[in-house]
């Protein structure tokens, strides 16, 4: 092998080894146009601040080579690229959005993070047009699939953690929308619009309301993320329910003249569940409901409870559910003293037609006022187990239920149907209130 001698020369303070043998000459590495653009083009970090290109300048090229002529050449190439492309290179086109993001909620994967870290730089093999297409400060850009995948709707949202305020969040009606994002905006989640058809006049319940409640019955939907995304539908259903409650109270007051007509908020129940002392942490109820009595929703009197729940679970109940110790003691004292009014109320022909015979059902099956889960298994303290009214004395919750189908709930005459049932329930409710209002003295005969 031919002997070689080497000499060291210095270029810009760095040593370069050059060989004297022609066959073994060291060829200086060359850069492609893409790598030049990657090193020279400023990039934008996640925080939105501009960052310069690669700071390591090659020792084989002089900085002065990039003069006015080179800048003019690059500008001409950029203009040619803009003419050929319908949108900036590197952003997802509309067709790609429609194919990869077809409207499923799973498209917003909270764990995905396709955005580069702050300390990352462009790869050397990236094309010049991609590097030149970095949006400038103050310009708009289209939301990409990566932007949407990065969105976190609810718990631990990346978009929320990045410092974007709620006012900067972009609401999406569908995944196929091309959303123009201002500087500093992020896609925070998806808001589903409320139904635009199927509305009903005040005093009726629409299919839209039952559909929303049926979706809440699905365990995967009954959480805060899903509820926030469908809040417009909830607000529409809630307004419809409040508009229904006003004429409903008026009809119930016609059947029972002891019932007042109150503002909707004073009789309806909130959709949010109290989960503080419950093993079931489901945050939302899957029904709309209202309660009223001679003392209003929170009174201690026997009253009425109307609940709208899809799939045939809508009910109208009346009576006293789990009365207090004093109220229950007063009812039992009156039963021991004179059970006739009680027997007459639950044995009335119209009452029996709706709720069954006034006797315990076979094998503990619920019937009339009997068969509830909190009913005593043995006689109350101080009462003989062979007492002739022991079936009444074992009761704790004294209530009856009437069920409605979904078709009955959405029918225009639903208020009249509820009012007709209230008329049958009224004597029973008045009897319970009389029993609680006039406890019998133990020394009376």
From TrEMBL:
<feature type="region of interest" description="Disordered">
    <location>
        <begin position="1"/>
        <end position="176"/>
    </location>
</feature>
<feature type="compositionally biased region" description="Acidic residues">
    <location>
        <begin position="108"/>
        <end position="131"/>
    </location>
</feature>
<feature type="compositionally biased region" description="Low complexity">
    <location>
        <begin position="27"/>
        <end position="49"/>
    </location>
</feature>
<feature type="compositionally biased region" description="Low complexity">
    <location>
        <begin position="87"/>
        <end position="107"/>
    </location>
</feature>
<dbReference type="Pfam" id="PF09365">
    <property type="entry name" value="DUF2461"/>
</dbReference>
<protein>
    <recommendedName>
        <fullName>TIGR02453 family protein</fullName>
    </recommendedName>
</protein>
<feature type="compositionally biased region" description="Low complexity">
    <location>
        <begin position="1"/>
        <end position="11"/>
    </location>
</feature>
<dbReference type="InterPro" id="IPR012808">
    <property type="entry name" value="CHP02453"/>
</dbReference>
């Amino acid at each position: 092998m031919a002997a070689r001698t080497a000499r060291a020369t210095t270029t810009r303070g760095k040593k370069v080894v050059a060989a004297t043998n022609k066959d073994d000459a060291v060829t200086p590495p060359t850069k492609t146009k893409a790598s030049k653009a990657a090193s020279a083009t400023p990039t934008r970090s996640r925080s939105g601040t501009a960052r310069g290109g690669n700071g390591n300048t090659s020792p084989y090229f002089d900085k002065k080579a990039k003069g006015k002529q080179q800048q003019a050449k690059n500008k001409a190439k950029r203009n040619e690229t803009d003419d050929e492309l319908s949108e900036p290179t590197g952003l997802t086109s509309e067709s790609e959005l429609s194919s990869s993001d077809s409207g499923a909620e799973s498209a917003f994967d909270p764990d995905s993070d396709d955005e580069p870290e702050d300390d990352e730089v462009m790869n050397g093999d990236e094309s010049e047009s991609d590097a030149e297409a970095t949006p400038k400060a103050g310009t708009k850009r289209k939301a990409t699939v990566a932007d949407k995948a990065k969105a976190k709707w609810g718990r631990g949202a990346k978009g929320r953690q990045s410092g974007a305020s709620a006012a900067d969040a972009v609401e999406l009606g569908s995944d196929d929308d091309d959303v123009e994002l201002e500087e500093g905006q992020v896609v925070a989640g998806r808001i589903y619009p409320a139904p635009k058809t199927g509305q009903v006049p005040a005093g009726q319940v629409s299919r839209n309301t039952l559909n929303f409640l049926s979706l809440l019955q699905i365990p995967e939907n009954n959480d805060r993320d899903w509820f926030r995304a469908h809040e417009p539908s909830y607000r529409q259903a809630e307004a419809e329910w409040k508009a229904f409650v006003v004429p409903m109270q008026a009809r119930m007051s016609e059947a029972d003249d002891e019932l007042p007509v109150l503002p909707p908020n004073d009789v309806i129940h909130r959709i949010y569940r109290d989960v503080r002392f419950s093993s079931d942490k489901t945050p939302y109820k899957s029904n709309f409901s209202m309660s009223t009595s001679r003392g209003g929703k929170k009174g201690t009197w026997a009253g009425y409870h109307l609940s709208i729940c899809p799939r045939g679970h809508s009910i109208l109940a009346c009576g006293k559910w789990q009365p207090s110790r004093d109220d229950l003691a007063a009812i039992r004292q009156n039963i021991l003293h004179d059970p006739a009014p009680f027997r007459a109320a639950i044995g009335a022909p119209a009452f029996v037609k709706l709720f069954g015979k006034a006797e315990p059902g076979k094998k503990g099956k619920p019937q009339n006022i009997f068969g509830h889960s909190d009913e005593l298994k043995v006689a109350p303290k101080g009462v003989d187990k062979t007492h002739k009214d022991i079936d009444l004395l074992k009761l704790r919750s004294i209530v009856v239920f009437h069920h409605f189908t979904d078709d009955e709930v959405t029918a225009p005459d639903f208020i009249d149907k509820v009012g007709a049932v209230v008329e049958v329930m009224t004597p029973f409710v008045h009897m319970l209130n009389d029993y609680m209002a006039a406890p019998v003295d133990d020394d009376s005969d």
